[in-house]
């Protein structure tokens, strides 16, 4: 009986997606495990607004911010796999938190039906202008000569924290991690030089970069950011193998009908190719993606393996910076 209901739901969504932009389809409840206005929220809405424009499929957004994204992500995993509930989650809840939370209530590798990787937001190595440092090589020299330089992040286990820990390991230096609860406070201390280095997501610091208070030194990616075309990659600046980013993916509960997954993936790929969507992602420092479900599953698996090694080597826990 349950399988029959799910098949019926799949058919309803499949045919409503093919009905054109009529706005007649039953809405899909879409969970976002972070607050309204967060990068996850903004990126998701930009993309799915285009899906709605293209197909008429409506989405009702449900923000569930708590516990580093674990609460909302768990809600996606526990939802009925009928195609009418799914959501966006990120590198934290879908990879890193499996390592950091021993009592995680879901398994990122087993409890979801991957739909698509939609965006990657590389970390940017930045320094306060108070340091009078202009290149990554100068920063590296400074870190080697001055142990325990402070760097800020939005919290233990965040992509920014792990980007810093990974950088310490690659460079063989010791820094002091300072976790912040409020991004604005982090940026204030970065500008003032109290925590003069950070491994930030561009939206958090772009205003201060434009104002000249923070200097971007390198992008932790294998290619430059379109939003920072003059800033080299870490490899170009002399630190090879440094790749760190927050990423965003759409997933559904395990068992969601294949027809729903395939149809939504197709429409996400189409929406991701829209010039307006790509331009708006670029403004946020995000690299648009449009993976297959299978590619997303492999990506999640590889990210868990990568960060397990880095976290264990750094002795990182939720309580330890």
Task: Write structural notes for this entry.
The structure is a single chain. With 321 residues, the protein is of the alpha/beta class. It has 2 domains: 2-119 and 248-307, D-Maltodextrin-Binding Protein, domain 2, CATH 3.40.190.150; 121-219, Periplasmic binding protein-like II (D-Maltodextrin-Binding Protein, domain 2, 3-Layer(aba) Sandwich). Helices cover 44% and strands 20% of the residues. The protein contains 11 helices and 10 strands. The chain has helices spanning 2-17, 39-55, 70-78, 91-100, 136-145, 159-171, 183-192, 202-210, 258-272, 275-283, 293-314, and strands at 28-32, 59-63, 85-90, 112-128, 149-153, 175-179, 197-201, 214-219, 245-253, 287-288. Helix 2 (39-55) links the parallel strand 1 and strand 2. The longest helix is centred in the last third of the chain and has 22 residues, at 293-314. The termini are far apart. The model is unreliable at 17-24 (pLDDT under 50).
Summarize the structure.
This protein is α/β, with parallel strands linked by helices and 321 residues long. The chain contains 11 helices and 10 strands.
Number of domains: 2
Supply the number of helical segments: 11
Question: Ranges with pLDDT <50 over ≥5 residues?
Answer: 17-24
Please name the fourth-level CATH homologous superfamily of the largest domain. Bordetella uptake gene, domain 1
Write the layout of secondary structure elements.
Layout (H helix, E strand, L loop, with lengths): L1 H16 L10 E5 L6 H17 L3 E5 L6 H9 L6 E6 H10 L11 E17 L7 H10 L3 E5 L5 H13 L3 E5 L3 H10 L4 E5 H9 L3 E6 L25 E9 L4 H15 L2 H9 L3 E2 L4 H22 L7
Helix pairs in contact: 1-9, 2-9, 4-11, 6-11
């Amino acid at each position: 009986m349950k399988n029959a209901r799910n098949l019926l739901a799949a058919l309803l969504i499949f045919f409503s997606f093919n009905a054109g932009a009529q706005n007649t389809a039953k809405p899909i409840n879409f969970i976002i495990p972070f607050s309204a206005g967060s990068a996850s929220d903004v990126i998701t809405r930009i993309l799915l607004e285009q899906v709605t424009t293209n197909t008429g499929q409506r989405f009702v957004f449900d923000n569930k911010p708590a516990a580093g994204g674990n609460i909302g992500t768990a809600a996606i995993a526990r939802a009925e796999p009928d195609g009418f509930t799914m959501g966006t989650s990120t590198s934290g809840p879908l990879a890193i938190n499996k390592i950091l939370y021993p009592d995680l209530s879901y398994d990122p590798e087993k409890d979801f039906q991957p739909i698509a990787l939609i965006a990657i937001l590389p970390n940017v190595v930045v320094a306060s202008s108070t340091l009078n440092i202009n290149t990554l090589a100068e920063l590296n020299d400074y870190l080697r000569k001055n142990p325990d330089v402070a760097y800020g992040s939005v919290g233990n286990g965040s992509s920014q924290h792990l980007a810093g820990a990974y950088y310490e390991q690659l460079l063989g230096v010791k820094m002091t991690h300072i976790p912040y609860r409020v991004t604005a406070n982090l940026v204030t201390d970065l500008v003032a030089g109290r925590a003069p280095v950070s491994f930030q997501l561009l939206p958090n610091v772009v205003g201060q970069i434009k104002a000249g208070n923070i200097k971007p030194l390198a992008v932790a990616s294998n290619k430059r950011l379109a939003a920072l075309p003059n800033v080299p990659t870490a490899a170009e600046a002399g630190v090879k193998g440094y790749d760190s980013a927050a990423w965003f993916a759409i997933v559904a509960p395990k068992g969601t009908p294949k027809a729903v997954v395939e149809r939504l993936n197709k429409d996400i790929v189409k929406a991701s190719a829209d010039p307006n969507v790509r331009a708006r992602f670029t403004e946020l420092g995000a690299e648009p993606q449009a993976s297959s479900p299978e590619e997303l599953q492999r990506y999640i698996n590889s990210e868990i393996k990568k960060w397990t090694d880095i976290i264990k080597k750094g002795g990182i826990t939720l309580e330890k910076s």
